[in-house]
Amino acid sequence: MDPLATVIDLLRPHTAVSKPITGRGDWGVRYAAHDMPGFALVLDGGCWLAPDGHAPLRLVRGDFVLFPSTPAFEMVSRPGIACVPTAPSDTAMRHGDAEGEPDFRMLGGTFGIERVNAPVLLALLPGMVHIRAAESDTTRLARIVGLIMEECADDRPGGGTILTRLLEVMLVEALRRETIGEAGWQAGLLAGLRDPPLARVLRALHADVGAGWTVGELARIAGLSRSAFAVRFTQRVGCAPMEYLARWRMALAKDALHRGGVSLDRLAAEVGYESASAFSTAFRRRVGCAPGGFARAARRGHGGPPVAFAAPTP
């Protein structure tokens, strides 16, 4: 089973808003952080993008950027330009000179994700993906973004379903690239999947999450000694192997409880616990409430307390 695909399945991207962004001359804008993913593709010209806490990035024609959770950021035509606070909009944006042919064009957008497991799943992904057209062909991404734009502009039957599928495809296409910028090499799922021995382990874990895995068994799959495997997994993925498995089991359990229709006995067996009682104890310890209480909160639209899953360290 493809671990990246399972993460995106649980994120359930939906409800996209996409728009053209143009500019001419000197301009600078600043956006506040928001917890929705954002993406952008440069069509013509260039700009500088400066997410808070990171060095400015030069974006040029064909470059693609994805934020799994969008931080506060500034975008300017050239360094040193004062930025105007700007609110997100679902309509076309024009920066700088209002008259004349734009010298900068970009397609930008945001979309929703399933909130119940967002902290867990986003911690597995890089904080930012930057695919440079000079290093990787972004033609496929451009076609996907163009289709997203078309669906956002039209109100046709089945549009929501098509948008969901297009967003899933965009995420997979972006995240599986080898050249996604330095942020993509921080500890997390992508770093683990780029390490062949660890990729075998991650595929095995995701294919049979209910199995009674041990560190020794996983080390044999990786072809490493137990100690070397444990250190390598922790460095690449950001947590110890058994901790990763426990967190992933809880993510699947929260998703199942959120959707409803499954008994605790069956759910416990599916995610690797010997009994409903053992599962309930583990769930309460990690989530802060009993499975039944979490399910009731989810039905009321809350989703319960987030599972603790620290962001990986660069």
Automatic annotation (TrEMBL):
<feature type="domain" description="HTH araC/xylS-type">
    <location>
        <begin position="199"/>
        <end position="297"/>
    </location>
</feature>
<keyword id="KW-0238">DNA-binding</keyword>
<dbReference type="InterPro" id="IPR009057">
    <property type="entry name" value="Homeodomain-like_sf"/>
</dbReference>
<keyword id="KW-0805">Transcription regulation</keyword>
<dbReference type="Pfam" id="PF12852">
    <property type="entry name" value="Cupin_6"/>
</dbReference>
<protein>
    <submittedName>
        <fullName>AraC family transcriptional regulator</fullName>
    </submittedName>
</protein>
<dbReference type="InterPro" id="IPR018062">
    <property type="entry name" value="HTH_AraC-typ_CS"/>
</dbReference>
<keyword id="KW-0804">Transcription</keyword>
<dbReference type="Pfam" id="PF12833">
    <property type="entry name" value="HTH_18"/>
</dbReference>
<dbReference type="InterPro" id="IPR050204">
    <property type="entry name" value="AraC_XylS_family_regulators"/>
</dbReference>
<dbReference type="InterPro" id="IPR018060">
    <property type="entry name" value="HTH_AraC"/>
</dbReference>
<dbReference type="InterPro" id="IPR032783">
    <property type="entry name" value="AraC_lig"/>
</dbReference>
